[in-house]
Amino acid sequence: MDDKQIIAKRIAMELNDGDLVNLGIGIPTLVADYIEPGKTIVFHSENGVVGMGPYIDENTYIVNAGGNKASVLKGGAFIDSLMSFSMIRGGHISVTVLGALEVDIEGNVASWIVPGKRVPGMGGAMDLVEGAKKVIIAMTHTNKGQPKILTRCRLPLTAANQVDMIVTEMAVMSVEKDGLHLKEVHPNYSIEEVLKATEAPLIIDQVIPMKGIEL
Amino acid sequence: MKGRIDKTEFIQLLQDKMTIMVGGFLANGSPERLIDLVVESGIKDLTIICNDGGFPDRGVGKLIETRQVKRLIASHIGTNPTVGVLMQSNELEVELSPQGTLAERIHAGGAGLGGILTKTGLNTIVEEKKRVIIVEDIPYLLETPLKADLALIGGAVADKYGNLAYLQTMRNFNPIIALAADCVVAEAVQEVDEIDPEHVITPHPLVDYILAEEQ
Fold first, then answer.
1. Is the residue at A214 inside a domain?
2. Domain locations in chain B?
3. Is A24 inside any structural domain?
4. ipTM of the complex
5. How does A64-82 read in b/e, with b if 16+ C-beta sit within 10 Å?
6. Hey, is the C-beta of B74 within 8 angstroms of any chain A C-beta?
7. Residue A215 forms part of a structural domain
8. Is residue A196 part of a domain?
9. Active-site residue, from A14, A46, A169, A184
10. Cβ proximity of B148 and B72 under 8 Å
């Protein structure tokens, strides 16, 4: 498995049977490939699908939130953007998984703008991070060697104090009132290596090997 | 509904400096024929309200390529590099609004509401220059309503009365903008005799014109 697949597989283990889940673009999309047998997860796509299915090679008008061809599963529904975002903002989404540029010890996340360089816009990310019951960040631990897990985000925020969990190819961390807790470390790395790649201080109490890794 | 119109009659409805809402999500459900006619008309200094900037050759992106747009209100512009270029050179003013907020602002404009209160955008740069209102000890951002002179609807199934339903994910912002503009023009993907009243999404009194199919 490559880094992205490691992250996606670990996050899939966090989803519970019956959850309504919104996956962001990029690594988060891969989470759908690792749902454990026996779990029924319903995927919500903010452009207007409840019960989103995978890409199919058929002529339809169905796209996912990345604008790519997708499908709807049995029992699914097409909804307008108002219903879609009422579900998001009203707390009806169990889990949202999204990528990020930076995350910090207070659960702040920056994911939508690099001033002066890249301004793609926030799309639905601000609503999702604010409204979903659980927010999981799926991202590589560093960006070209530069830490992305910081004491305080430097880029403009997507939302403040909303992140619950961070999963990278190196480790799993949870955001708690007293800061970031290191929970799991990938067997390929030592705790020291994780700390070195992380700008933020990590609270270490009980660290176990990252779940779902086959050695 | 006032009736069906052809391309010449539609172009006569257009004027410089109009505010136009356009349906679609990354051009899925965008009224491509109506957009082409706005390009053909050559009207300029437009304010466009749309979920995103589309692509240079699809959706509202076509109006941005022709420099007909002065101001764009959208949630995401990352798929259209021209938007970024024109923003940098100050030829295009862009207001980014979180997607759920954008949908609710349009809804507020169409439903006669004075605005909406939302937690989305709090403690981010979206909060700048906006009022924070505390209701039952919870702070919310006040976001103002959006209205338009013209709404252009795509992705629709239209019946002889002008009732509309939408195909699959092409629904997105289309039914919302149908409430928020002085004049509403729809482009049908499919024409039917009658839509079952149980399945009408946009009732015909909200629709002014339907663009006749090309001869």
1. no
2. 3-115+145-211
3. yes
4. 0.97
5. bbebebbbbeeebebbbbb
6. yes
7. no
8. yes
9. A46
10. no
B118 interaction partners in chain A (CB closer than 8 Å) = 89
Interior angle at CA A31, CA A30 and CA A37, nearest 5: 125
Eight-class DSSP state of A142: E
Tell me the DSSP string of chain B. Answer: --EEE-HHHHHHT--TT-EEEE--BTTBT--HHHHHHHHHHT--SEEEE-SB--BTTBTTHHHHHTT-EEEEEESB-TT-HHHHHHHHTTSSEEEE--HHHHHHHHHHHHHT-S-EEESTTTTSGGGTT--EEEETTEEEEEE----EEEEEEEEEEE-TT--EEE-GGG-TTHHHHTTSEEEEEEEEEEE-S---GGG-SB-GGG--EEEPPP-
> Hey, what are A125's tokens?
């990310």
A46 in catalytic set: yes
Q: Which fold has domain B3-115+145-211?
A: Glutaconate Coenzyme A-transferase (3.40.1080)
Predicted confidence (pLDDT) per residue in B7-54, tens digit: 999 999 999 999 999 999 999 999 999 999 999 999 999 999 999 999
What is the Cα A33 distance to its own chain's centre?
A: 14
* Rounded-to-10 torsion of CA A126, A130, A135, A140: 30
The reported pLDDT for the residue numbered B213 is 82
CB contact under 8 A, A121 and B120: no
Nearest to B154 by CA among B127, B169, B174: B174
For the stretch A109-145, pLDDT in tens is 999 999 988 899 999 999 999 999 999 999 999 999 9
- Give the domain extent around A9: 3-209
Domains of chain A: total: 1
Tokens of B31: 């009224």
The candidate with the shortest Cα–Cα distance to A100, out of A167, A13, A20, A183, is: A167
Q: Which of A79, A80, A126 comes nearest B120 by C-beta?
A: A126
Contacts of B52 (CB under 8 A, 6+ apart): A121, A123, B25, B26, B59, B60, B74, B75, B76, B77, B79, B80
Helix A81-89 to helix B99-111 angle (10° resolution) is 120
Distance between CA A215 and CA A202 in Å, rounded?
A: 26
The SS3 of residue A127 is helix
Cα-flanking dihedrals φ and ψ of residue A194, to 5°? -65, -45
Specify the pairing of strand A142-143 against strand A146-147: antiparallel
B202 token code pair: 């946009």
Structure tokens at A121: 């816009």
